[in-house]
Amino acid sequence: MQMLRRTAGALLAGMIATGAAGAQISYSTTAFFSGPGATACTMVAAITASCTGGGFSLLFTSASAVNVANGTVTSLGTFSLTGAGDATIPAGSLFFTLLVNESTPTPGTGTFVGGITGSVNTLGGTNFSSLIWTPNPFANVGATQYQMIFDVVGPAANIGLGIPINNTRGINALVTTTSAVPEPATVSLVLTGLAGLIPLAVRRRKNASQHSVA
Predict the structure, then answer these.
(1) 199: domain range?
(2) In this structure, are 109 and 204 located in the same domain?
(3) Is the pLDDT assigned to residue 107 strictly greater than 90?
(4) DSSP state at residue 149
(5) Which of 41, 97, 98, 159 is most buried, by the most CB atoms less than 10 A from its CB?
């Protein structure tokens, strides 16, 4: 009996570990700008979000129908900065929200949100940007955790966790499944099989005891 209990526990633990390691995660992203400085910002068909001002256009292109394995670094979308001129975004005037819309394994939405601050200008035909987006580091959907990957050597390193926005900046995250529970039907099948072994183990133990007494 003790052996059967240990076997059952080991089987279920193995099923959970295998489920976590092999989990497939499917998601897409949408985004929008907000705040008093977002009067020139738009969202088109939830695929792109853009802001214009001072001769520049800041465009975010969302990720669509992404399928990744557990433990993968993956793209959540891309910022593109185009144009020429001179623009400054004061703190508290422009916010950017990135929504991770998961369909598998758990339908739901995780949110990264934070302010965009800094300035961008053109000198001698070259654009110089100090724009920084500073969102929260984690977003969770069910058992899935999306961990934002921040710039640790660029301008953001001087102000804390943030992502510099230059001509083209990809937004990436590490995606991990914190736990995975086997399907109920699978668990039931395993337990039914183990239950069938219990009477056999009891009979063998009883027979062994009788032979020992004889």
Answers:
(1) 2-11+182-213
(2) no
(3) yes
(4) -
(5) 98
